[in-house]
């Protein structure tokens, strides 16, 4: 499952994924992998998966969720 693979519930216990459409977790995993790839290019190093997960959550997913909640979308 998504949480078993990403460990997001352990890395960010406060994470709220309730806005994610069921069945779309595979897409989120792809987003994390692409995010990891570009982090590696930018930082010129291999990025550990868990580091990519937390960075993606903090800098990509959470800001989008906050905008959605603020605007009542």
Q: Report the average pLDDT across residues.
A: 91
Radius of gyration: 13 Å
Strand portion:
under 5%
Shape type: globular
The sequence of SSEs as H and E is: HHHH
Are there runs of 5+ residues with pLDDT below 50, and where? none
Number of helices: 4
Helix content: 55-70%
How many beta-strand runs?
A: 0
Question: Can you lay out the helices and strands and say which pair or pack?
Answer:
Layout: H1 2-6, H2 8-11, H3 25-43, H4 49-71
Could you describe the 3D structure shown?
- By secondary structure, the protein is an all-alpha fold.
- It has one domain.
- It has helices at 2-6, 8-11, 25-43, 49-71.
- 12% of the residues are buried.
List keywords for this structure.
73 residues, mainly alpha, globular
Brief write-up:
The chain has 73 residues and is an all-alpha fold. It has four helices and no strands. 70% of the residues lie in helices and 0% in strands.
